Amino acid sequence: MTTDDYEDIPQSTIATPLPEIVPSGRRTRGRLRCVLGFLVFAILLAATRLSQLWLSFDVLSHFTLHFAILTVAFAVGYFMPFARVLTAILLSLFAFVGIGAYAQYVSDVPRTIGTVHSGERPLRLMTFNTRLLNDDAEAIVSEVRRLDPDVATLVEFGENKKVAYDLLKRDYPYHIECLAERFCHFAIISKVPIVSSEAKGIWKGPPLIRATLGGAYAGVNIIGVHTIRAPHVRAQFLQMGELADYLDHLQGQFVVMGDFNATPFARLLKIFTERTGLRRLTAIPTWPGQVELPQLAIDHVFVSPKVRLLEEPRIGRRSGSDHYPVALTVALPSS
Questions:
Q1: Same domain for 99 and 247
Q2: CATH code at 217?
Q3: What pTM did the predictor assign?
């Protein structure tokens, strides 16, 4: 048969490559894995609400958003024509990246949501878990100056960072610390006079430091806190209960801030706000910081009911820590 003979053959009779057919067994396995993933993460998502029955379930509440993302991702993956599990994994990863990227994005230009009214005074606050093993005091000083708080609570502030006092002395002439007391790694630096202070390292509540301000901010109590971390959930509840009792014996306006090792989804924080009447102003992810995409909001600021938020919370730069600092501005009623 010659080449010319081939040209006479109708095109419809020439064999064409068939599309690659995914074996039905592989499709079935993909669907089954998506169903399994959906069920596992849906059960974990439901378990985050079971702390009413068993306190230890509250440790799962910190991952509520992540369990929800994974549940939806595997549900979407189930309905894909191919690469179902890969689709679920990629959707989850994109969402996790989005959580951290959002925290960075909203912190670039924090939104002003209010102005100071007559009879109020603005106060810029900062809380920062500087990480006990972090020796980069100069980076911490640089970040404090950049965020420019009026009052800052520094958590996990050890002897290796005391040089920061000298570097910040001109900007923050008032400061207190409790490094001599066991398990009390705190410092409070302030542009506002501090008239009294107290620190508690070993007691039934969480380690804390208190500075009562004077001058134009007379009667304002700044309290730095660092609770025990999960999985010691019952100890967390006991500590926060003792903290609430401690606040009952103080007078004036309150700013309670620090590392609570609990996210806004935790029953722990809900009970604390109900017990004290304080309002939580923060929900921005601050940890972990190693990959620059924080996932969990565990560093918080709580304030008295009459204290208003003027500028939304923002995270700063890690400065060698595994946490991000949180800064915001509030309006305090005149005493």
A1: no
A2: 3.60.10.10
A3: 0.90
